[in-house]
Amino acid sequence: MVCTRGAVGRAQAAAIKQTCTTIDIEPFRFLDLPPELRNRVYTFHLATAANDGKIYDLTSLKEPAIAAVSQLVRQESLPIFFTEAAFELYVGADVDPRPGWTGTIQPYSPIKAKYAGTLTLRPRVLRRIRSSLQEAVILRDVTLKAVDCAVIQHRAYWKRVSSGVRQFHSISALRLRCDIGSGVEVAATVRDYYQYILDPRHADVQAIAEAVAGRAGFIGFTIEDLEEVAKGFRVPEEGTRANGDGK
User: Fold this and answer.
1) CB-side exposure of 29: number of CA atoms within 13 Å?
2) Who's near 30: CB < 8 A, 6+ residues apart?
3) Which of 67, 179, 194, 244 could link 63 by a cystine bridge, Cβ 3.0 to 4.6 Å?
4) What is the pLDDT at residue 2?
């Protein structure tokens, strides 16, 4: 009798199936593990995503799949998710470098300017996050991306656009990274066209961020901290817009 390769393969598959059916596999309950071990699993899973360079957009946050397993897993994993992963937030900036007919930089109208220094967090997303946590959201790696407040003003448009379109509108990025006991590390990038206007704003934002990080008991930025930091993107009311230095 001659055995073909296909016949051998089928015989091996049948043998493996027979072996598998005789092995007694006990069901495994993840929640039966000690809390310390579960936290290690969460940290490993979420840190792996962070190491892959994934950045989460808090404007329209899509939570990690592990948070959908159960309410308890959600409550345990989300605090670790926020401290381990990298995030980006969009903030309105009081910038309008287009010259008017007089050749000087024109200030925004009060209606548009009120959106400067405000985060573009959706209330629905923020409520969902806070309702799932028993403690404040702590972020240790967050990038504030400045967007012309004239764009932020159109809230219906801003809410429905994709993350890619939001990236298109971004004119600068200020990354805040903090390690416990080491303060906050600030790195800024800005489009050349806006640099002379945004450099003073970045200096203000950095000063506020460092002041927040210097508070006793600081372990990371809360949403309230970031709302305070974002106010640095506003041009001081007593400042002048004519020379474009924002001072």
Assistant:
1) 5
2) 38, 41, 69, 73
3) 67
4) 46
Q: How far apart are CA 170 and CA 193, in angstroms?
A: 12
3-state secondary structure of 148: strand
163 Ramachandran zone, left/alpha/beta (phi>0; psi -120 to 50):
alpha
Measured between alpha carbons, how far is 126 from 129 in angstroms, rounded to an integer? Answer: 5
pLDDT band at 54 (very low <50, low <70, confident <90, very high): confident
- Report how far apart, in Å, the C-alpha atoms of 236 and of each of 149, 204, 210 are: 15, 10, 19
pLDDT, tens only, 15-34: 655 555 555 556 668 888 88
- At 181 the pLDDT is 67
Task: Give the tokens for residue 9.
Answer: 């393969």
Question: Sheet containing 55-57: which strands, arranged edge to edge?
Answer: 55-57, 86-93, 141-148, 170-179, 183-190
Distance CA 83, CA 72 (A): 18
pLDDT tens sequence across 97-118: 554 444 444 555 665 677 788 8
DSSP letter, residue 91 = E
What is d(CA 207, CA 223) in angstroms, rounded to the nearest whole number?
17
Q: What is the distance in angstroms between the CA of the first residue and the CA of the last residue of the chain?
A: 93
Domain ranges of the chain: 34-233
- This prediction's pTM: 0.73
